[in-house]
Amino acid sequence: MKQITVDAYSKVNLALDVLGRLPNGYHEVHMIMQQLQLKDRITVKKTGSGRREIILTTDKDGVPLDYRNLAFQAAQLMLGLEELTEGVHIHIEKHIPIAAGMAGGSADCAAVFIAMNELFDMKLSTASLCRLGAKLGADIPFCIMGGTAVAAGTGTNITKIKGLNPEKYFVLVCKPSQGMSTGAVYAKYSERAGEMILRKHPDIIRLVGGLTSDSGLEILKKDMINVLQYVTAEELTEIKEIIYIMERKGAEHAMMTGSGPAVFGIFRDSQKVAEAYMELAEIYEETYITGFR
Ligand code: ATP
Q1: Phi/psi of residue 214, each to 5°?
Q2: Which of 24, 142, 146, 188 has the least CB density, counted as fewest CB within 10 Å?
Q3: CA 98 to centroid of ligand 1, rounded, Å
Q4: Minimum CA distance residue for ligand 1 atom 4
Q5: Which CATH number among 1.10.1040.10, 1.10.10.10, 3.10.290.10, 3.30.70.890 corresponds to the domain 170-290?
Q6: Once rounded to an integer, what is the mean pLDDT over residues 32-57?
Q7: Closest C-alpha to 8, from 89, 100, 88, 115
Q8: Coil, strand or helix: which one is 227?
Q9: Which residue ranges does the chain devote to CATH 3.30.70.890?
Q10: CB under 6 Å to ligand 1: residues?
């Protein structure tokens, strides 16, 4: 039976700023999102049972296999759209660290939208898929579009831009053993909003200009700031330790992605990234060398 396999790429934020709170309670953000080569693989096929059912399987512990999984929710939405009396079996080959700030669940969800659009020949445009995706999570439209983008509003308003040259850099990802939920990070940030205004914020427009004109990292990194890191790095000391090790080992820049806790370092030199990997992998199980996409 026909099956579709789609790559589900992780992301990091090259910058993340919180502008305030919207009337609906969501935070208004301004971010630069960048896909990495580190990815899950999603395979979708029809079950052939003639019943509307969703069967989820995975090769990794800790991934929910019911409605809590964003891939499940995407399938439910797609089956409902055409009132299909068909079932799907979705297999998630999981490589993206879970609850890391790397949009793993959102990437899997986006991949299911793309795969089912093809499997059922639904002919939905990318814009339509993004609108559907936004119903399930703020990062999903970006995961559908891919590449590098500025995200505004709650994160669903996406404009594609030019990213860093993938040929020039290695990316080292390291996930601390301690974590903090996305909700808790934003709540802490809001509590300290007055103080946070006084901290250094990224100039996103300048960063987009720098990326477009191929400025070197030396210039770009002044605006590669994630304001949520001000909160998490105080709560989770491993974040500072990982950044310190990456920089000591020769990273051009190191910072936290999303609401964390994963940290990524950008390296030019293959030897240096390998040495940093060896030191961090001894301490942190989830350490990966990857690249930009
Ligand atoms: P984001 O960067 O979008 O905030 P994240 O990388 O921090 O996401 P996920 O890996 O998506 O976080 O996982 C967050 C939680 O979502 C997990 O604890 C898990 O229970 C749930 N989840 C839902 N769908 C998935 C999925 N497909 N893969 C992994 N976790 C999922």
Answers
A1: 60, 35
A2: 24
A3: 6
A4: 101
A5: 3.30.70.890
A6: 96
A7: 115
A8: coil
A9: 170-290
A10: 63-64, 68-71, 92, 98-106, 108, 139, 182, 258-259
